[in-house]
Design a protein that fits this description.
- The structure is a single chain.
- By secondary structure, the chain is of the alpha/beta class.
- The chain has two domains: 3-357, Aldolase class I (TIM Barrel), CATH 3.20.20.70; 373-472.
- It has helices at residues 11-16, 33-41, 53-58, 67-72, 140-151, 171-184, 196-199, 206-213, 232-243, 262-274, 298-310, 373-399, 403-435, 440-446, 448-472, and strands spanning 3-4, 7-8, 101-102, 108-112, 158-162, 189-194, 218-223, 248-253, 278-283, 317-321, 328-330, 339-340, 343-348, 351-357.
- The strands form three sheets. It has a nine-stranded mixed beta sheet. A three-stranded antiparallel beta sheet has the order 12-13-14, with no helix packed on it. The protein has a two-stranded antiparallel ribbon with strand order 1-2.
- Strand 7, helix 9 and strand 8 form a beta-alpha-beta unit.
- The protein is elongated, with a radius of gyration of 28 Å.
- Bound molecules: iron/sulfur cluster.
- Iron/sulfur cluster binds next to loops.
């Protein structure tokens, strides 16, 4: 461990100085009510919280919708499970022939090296592992067991190091780990999944780069979700790795409220390419507990992805990991063709392999059926009508005016209720038209009759209001 006058320094000092308690957030960063509610309702078993000073420096404290804030500051939504969510969304616990080693695909295995991350992503699909509460690193016995398994399975051609974040290990531990796996299998390819170039770029020291380059073939897969994450420090870290001849790939997650805009995605893919990183996969979020607020509907995701892909040549593949552990499948119209009870039925080789929630209507995160739009509209209309009629009668009574004033005011109120309902219907038609893939021109043309109806209603209301004014005078 690197120490200076008894103190940590470099990336370790920055790691030790990360924020793990809301009271340590910078003074200008006010928590929003839903963020405060997370900390109030936080239990020991709830997902951990930690954010690096580097990330806090990228965040705009004045913007409640800041993409960095949304990814790293928790909200109370995480404390309530959503429809179809799973503790182990990809069935990883079922494919561990020895502890901490996943062997799902014949030619590769994945080692869960640590349960620690420098900053905890609020959408993390492996939060049951990256809890910071299990074990910081594999014990020598566990490492030996995993290495012996890989030694005995020559069909495994690549070992993926993941967790948690494997680059939180010291250089010495990493060297020992790589060396052990290469001892019997010198040809074994290595892949490191990390988020440190984004959340703690100082970890990418020249010494680490030399160490990684010494164990080629080795490639790095970095998770990057928003162009803002690629700040100068992150680019410099990626540049060091690329200059050492290490292939760099990016995995991104399509996250509602973070990057679910075609232009943002296109910018992200272009920025990654510019930084020497190949955009590899864009993932539909997995069904990890408490992450429903991050999941866009996959059909919408597909539209966003296609629009983004049309804006530049760098688009990765848009993939979904089948819930329960059926493997990765590309998100395509055929995959989303069947629905039942608020879930897509996802087929693989002709059979339903998994179910994934639809979020096409007003979203339910409680496991209840999504609300029906028409019933929302009826209820709103009734409530509004009652309020407006009551207000009209009270106004006329207070003014001591004639029954004719009351009648005119009641007609105005009724028309205003219809106007509100027409607005709601128009919103629904617009939503459906967008969903069906119509062009903006087609949408405008299809909505022309509703626009005319609203104009007529507006004119009728204006005429009645004039009549009411005359009567009152
Ligand atoms: S860095 Fe990876 S493992 Fe850690 S919290 Fe983020 S997504 Fe999860």
């Amino acid at each position: 461990m690197v120490r200076e006058a008894g103190k940590l320094r470099g990336w370790r000092a920055e790691l030790a100085g990360r924020v793990t308690k809301p009271r340590d957030l910078p003074p200008g960063l006010e928590l929003r009510p839903e963020e405060r509610a997370f900390f109030r309702g936080h239990r020991r078993e709830a997902p951990p919280f930690a954010v690096t000073r580097h990330l806090l420096g990228l965040l705009d404290p004045a913007d409640p919708a800041d993409p960095i804030r949304r990814q790293f500051l928790p909200t109370a939504s995480e404390l309530s499970p959503g429809a179809g969510e799973l503790e182990d969304p990809l069935g990883e616990d079922r494919v561990q022939p020895v502890p901490n080693l996943l062997h799902r695909y014949p030619d590769r295995a994945l080692l869960l090296v640590t349960d620690r991350c420098a900053a905890y992503c609020r959408h993390c699909f492996r939060r049951r592992v990256s809890s910071g509460r299990r074990r910081a690193f594999l014990s020598p016995a566990e490492l030996e067991q995993a290495a012996a398994y890989v030694d005995g399975h020559p069909e495994i051609r690549e070992l993926i190091l993941s967790g948690g974040d494997p680059l939180l290990l010291s250089d010495a531990r990493l060297r020992a780990l790589f060396a052990r796996f290469r001892r019997e299998r010198p040809e074994l390819a290595l892949r490191v999944h990390t988020r440190l170039p984004v959340v703690l770029p100082r970890r990418v020291t020249p010494a680490l780069v030399r160490l990684l380059a010494g164990f080629r073939p080795l490639r790095l897969v970095v998770q990057v979700n928003h162009p803002r994450e690629l700040d100068p420090a992150c680019r410099q870290a990626l540049g060091l790795l690329a200059a050492a001849g290490l292939p760099l790939l990016a995995q991104s997650v399509l996250l509602a409220g973070v990057n679910d805009r075609p232009r943002t995605l296109a910018e992200l893919f272009a920025a990654l390419s510019g930084a020497g990183v190949r955009p590899y996969y864009l993932f539909q979020p997995d069904l990890a507990r408490g992450t429903a607020h991050f999941r866009p509907d996959p059909a919408r995701g597909l539209r966003l992805y296609r629009e983004a892909a049309a804006l530049g040549p760098e688009a990765p593949r848009y993939m979904l990991d089948l819930p329960g552990g059926g493997g990765k499948v590309p998100v395509e119209p055929d995959l989303l063709g069947e629905r039942e009870d608020g879930f897509y039925l996802l087929r693989r080789d002709g059979v339903v392999a998994a179910r994934y929630p639809c979020y096409a209507g007003p979203m339910s995160t409680s496991g209840k059926k999504p609300k029906d739009f028409a019933s929302v509209m009826r209820k709103t209309g009734k409530k509004l009508g009652k309020t407006l009629r009551g207000a009209a009668q009270a106004t006329a009574k207070a003014a001591g005016k004639t029954a004719e004033v009351v009648a005119v005011r009641t007609r105005i109120s009724a028309k205003q209720v219809r106007q509100k309902a027409e607005f709601l219907k128009m919103g629904e038609s617009f939503y459906r038209a967008r969903k069906s893939g119509m062009s903006p021109e087609q949408i405008l043309a299809s909505m022309q009759p509703q626009v005319t109806k609203l104009d007529t209603l507006q004119q009728e209301i204006a005429t009645l209001e004039l009549r009411e004014k005359t009567l009152r005078n």
